[in-house]
């Protein structure tokens, strides 16, 4: 039983890593511009199909990771510049409708260009191997997802809390008008937040395809929705809360399936959203948000 539980914990951490990467971008963007970007999940799909195109072109995998980060950043900056910057300062309803419009536009464009046919997506053969330790077998894919996610998140925290850009982002999140008066290049800072958050979402698409082996143009809907739930659990606007919320959600989803009788496995999303309701009843602002917490 202990070995089985440990196996499920590894699966939950891998799935939680995927949610955490997307949720962090949600929180970064909301923390700075107070915008829930429902088009953010579609960057997962862009990252997945970009990876597939690069693999087909014969690009080495270490370079693919770099290229996918760059593609995600460019996509995020493009969306911010063309769509969100012109409506900055408008009502939240306007921003909400705009994000839905962008999401629908991306999904339908992908369907027209790529068709709705799912595509097989495989990591290199050695990544499908399983490593045994302590009586537990874990795939190299899951281990790589967990390790690379933690490295990316660690790099993000260094940027946010140890660089001038991070200081500018936190100042803008605290008070955009005051930050502008203090000389912060607000437009550049917001653009950087979109770039970083979108790059992480695109890499999540790379990992998602590698873990589940199949991608399609509507791939981003589920990760985007689950990442939003993770943000609410951890506290919308908190980077650390989004990360922990992603891992809580991933672990809960896997453990619900792994520990409950098999006939309940089809209802795992029901249990996940019940968990969300319980958490909101106990802590409406999220588990990891304090009144005095800085947001970025």
In words, what does this structure look like?
This protein has eleven helices and four strands. With about 300 residues, the chain is mainly α. It has one domain (about 5-115, about 130-280): ABC transporter involved in vitamin B12 uptake, BtuC (Orthogonal Bundle). The protein has a two-stranded antiparallel sheet with strand order 1-4. A two-stranded antiparallel ribbon has the order 2-3. Strand 2 and strand 3 (about 135-140) form a beta hairpin.
> What is the class in the CATH system?
Mainly Alpha
Q: For the residues shown, what is the average pLDDT?
A: 88
Give the H and E element order. HHHHEEEHHHHEHHH
Cα(first) to Cα(last) distance is 41 Å
Number of β-strand runs: 4
Largest sheet: 2 strands, antiparallel
Please state the overall shape, judged from the principal axes of the Cα atoms.
Answer: globular
């Amino acid at each position: 039983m202990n070995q089985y539980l440990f196996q499920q914990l590894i699966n939950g951490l891998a799935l939680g890593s995927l949610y955490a990467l997307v949720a962090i971008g949600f929180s970064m963007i909301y923390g700075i511009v107070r915008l829930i970007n429902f088009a953010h999940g579609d960057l997962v799909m862009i990252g997945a199909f970009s990876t597939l195109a690069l693999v087909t072109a014969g690009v080495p995998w270490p370079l693919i990771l770099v290229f996918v980060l760059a593609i995600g950043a460019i996509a995020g900056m493009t969306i911010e510049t063309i769509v969100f910057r012109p409506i900055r300062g408008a009502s939240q309803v306007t921003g909400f409708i705009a994000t839905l419009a962008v999401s629908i536009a991306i999904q339908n464009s992908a369907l027209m260009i790529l068709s709705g046919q799912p595509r097989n997506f495989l990591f290199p053969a050695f990544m499908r191997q399983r490593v045994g330790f302590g009586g537990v077998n874990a795939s190299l894919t899951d281990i790589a997802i967990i390790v690379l996610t933690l490295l990316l998140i660690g790099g993000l925290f260094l940027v946010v809390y140890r660089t001038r850009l991070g200081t500018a982002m936190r100042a803008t999140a605290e008070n955009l008008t005051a930050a502008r008066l203090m000389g912060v290049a607000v437009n550049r800072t917001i653009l950087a937040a979109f770039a970083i958050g979108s790059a992480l979402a695109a890499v999540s698409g790379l990992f998602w395809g590698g873990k589940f082996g199949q991608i399609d143009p509507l791939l981003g809907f589920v990760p985007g929705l689950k990442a939003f739930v993770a943000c609410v659990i951890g506290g919308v606007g908190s980077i650390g809360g989004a990360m922990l919320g992603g891992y809580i959600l991933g672990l809960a989803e896997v453990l619900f399936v792994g520990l409950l009788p098999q006939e309940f496995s089809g209802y795992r999303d029901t249990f996940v959203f019940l968990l969300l309701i319980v958490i909101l009843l106990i802590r409406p602002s999220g588990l990891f948000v304090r009144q005095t917490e800085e947001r970025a």
